[in-house]
Amino acid sequence: MQALQITLVKSWIGSPEKIRKVLFGLGLRKMQHSVVRKDTPEIRGMIFKVKHLVEVTEVEQAS
């Protein structure tokens, strides 16, 4: 199963409330914090909204 490692690399300070809610929805709270999420269309859409603030890498997740 494919998974995505998402890392917050830029600060969300000064960003609109919608962007902050997307970051919190992904589970990103602090700079350089990483989370691993399943590769789903919903997660991809969230990443697209905040692509200027995050770094994404694909990882192989054991099922």
User: What would the average pLDDT be, to the nearest integer?
Assistant: 94
Element pattern in H and E = EHEHE
By CATH, the architecture is named 2-Layer Sandwich
Q: Widest sheet: strand order?
A: 2-1-3
Gist of the model:
This protein is an alpha+beta fold and 63 residues long. The protein has helices at 17-26, 41-49; strands at 2-8, 34-38, 54-60. Part of the 50S ribosomal subunit.
Describe the structure.
The chain is α+β, with helices and mostly antiparallel strands and 63 residues long. It has a single domain (2-60), classed as 2-Layer Sandwich (Ribosomal Protein L30, Chain: A), CATH 3.30.1390. It has helices spanning 17-26, 41-49; strands at 2-8, 34-38, 54-60. The protein is globular and about 35 Å long. The model has no long low-confidence stretch (mean pLDDT 94).
Notable traits:
single chain, 63 residues, alpha+beta, Ribosomal Protein L30, Chain: A, three-stranded antiparallel β-sheet, 2 helices, 3 strands, 30% helix, 30% strand
Please write out the topology:
Layout: E1 2-8, H1 17-26, E2 34-38, H2 41-49, E3 54-60
Antiparallel strand pairs: 1-2, 1-3
